[in-house]
Design goal:
By secondary structure, the chain is an alpha+beta fold. It has nine helices and 20 strands. The protein folds into two domains: 133 residues, Adenine-n6-DNA-methyltransferase TaqI, Chain A, domain 2, CATH 3.90.220.20; 151 residues, DNA methylase specificity domains (Adenine-n6-DNA-methyltransferase TaqI, Chain A, domain 2).
Length: 369
């Protein structure tokens, strides 16, 4: 059937001065992980004409369709004119089935194909409404929609659980290691050569890098607490010997010196003797300290908020050794530290299991769509 036979374009425009709603949805408010609208703005956020939508309408981002931005409205409101408000014709397609059809690869591939304007590809309703698509019978639509909405509901519950567990880890970390009374500083738990900034440009030049050799860790190599190795820079063993003071030991904590200052990484066993890069800061801990407990503390949101007050530089924020050494941290007795780390690791293990369930549900949904 042609698309116009199963859906209609609700092109009701309204100016900001005329609107009576406080709900505005822009393309930036879509969450690609769900059909639900988790975010919204206010009509005063943007100027110009907007589109009116009603509860259960589908809001579809017609500009840059390859971004797959769409959501089902759970309330009345107004949205960006860069979106398209689509309403099902229930005698031909069930309203609860329509959003999943719009998410399907078949529809999205056609939407991208008919988009015009190379800089900002946009779909025209006049082009879309004559496109022909195969549709299952209404009875089959109902069965498919029930399965897909159940999957979407399950994913939403898993996501809420993940948020709650992350908040639990954050609260436990703050209470145990960061915000407790009599807190000390990171430097209190460091070895003698403690906080060390990577070699400056006069010691390590661009010409020193080569395809093979000793790995040199830059801030770009830090991700989710680990060091990524795919695109890591390397220098010769001979050059590395001249920079022995910048070698790593397992469980060294790494910070970026500038740029994205919330990055952190913990050096793994096999990364021993790798080198600290020019823009990297290495923190070496005392042997009796639990490095995982320290890492929990220095990666907490509380620590990041504290560090923001001391960023040096406006165009490109910087961290220095003194600031890092002054990070607030107070480790309890080793037995308690070990217990808390164990709880956090077990919680994250359950979170990984939940994420696998979410990934499986997404894969199954894509197979059905």
């Amino acid at each position: 059937m042609k698309f116009r036979n199963i859906a209609q374009n609700i092109a009701v425009h309204i100016d900001q001065a005329e609107t009576t709603t406080d709900v505005y949805v822009g393309l930036e408010h879509f969450d690609l992980k769900t059909l639900l609208l988790r975010q919204q703005g206010h009509p005063s956020d943007v100027t110009g004409q907007k589109l009116v939508f009603k509860k259960n309408d589908v809001i579809f981002g017609r500009r840059r369709a390859y971004q797959r931005k769409l959501a089902v409205a759970e309330f009345d409101g107004i949205c960006s004119a860069h979106a398209m408000v689509v309403r099902a014709k229930p005698e031909m397609i069930l309203p609860e089935f329509l959003p999943f059809f719009l998410q399907s690869d078949m529809f999205m591939e056609r939407a991208i194909e008919i988009s015009v304007d190379s800089l900002s590809p946009t779909i025209s309703w006049k082009t879309l409404y004559i496109q022909k698509f195969p549709f299952p019978p209404v009875k089959e639509q109902k069965r498919i929609a029930e399965i897909l909405w159940a999957a979407d509901e399950a994913m939403e519950k898993y996501r809420k659980s993940l948020v709650g567990m992350e908040q639990y880890i954050e609260a436990l970390t703050d209470k145990t290691f960061v915000l407790r009374e009599g807190r000390g500083h990171l430097s209190d738990y460091c070895a003698e050569d403690g906080v060390k900034i990577g070699p400056f440009g006069s010691l390590l030049h661009a010409r020193d890098y080569q395809a093979a050799g000793i790995s040199v860790v830059m801030p770009a190599d830090m991700n989710c607490g680990t060091v990524l190795e795919e695109n890591i820079a390397r220098i010769s063993e001979e050059k590395a010997k001249a920079l022995n003071n910048y070698r790593f030991l397992p469980n060294d904590v790494l910070f970026p010196r500038r740029g994205d200052l919330i990055k952190r990484a913990l050096v793994a066993e096999h990364q021993k003797d790798w080198l600290c890069g020019t823009e990297t800061i290495r923190v070496r801990l005392s042997k009796e300290v639990n490095p995982k407990a320290v890492f929990l503390a220095v990666t907490s949101s509380s620590t990041n908020r504290w560090l923001e007050r001391f960023f040096v530089g406006t165009t490109m924020p910087n961290l220095n050794a003194t600031t890092i050494g002054n990070i607030h941290i107070s480790l309890s007795v080793k037995k308690e530290c070990d217990a808390v780390v164990g709880v956090v690791e077990a919680t994250r293990g359950r979170m990984s299991g939940m994420q696998r369930h979410i990934d499986s549900l997404i894969k199954n949904k894509q197979g059905i769509c």
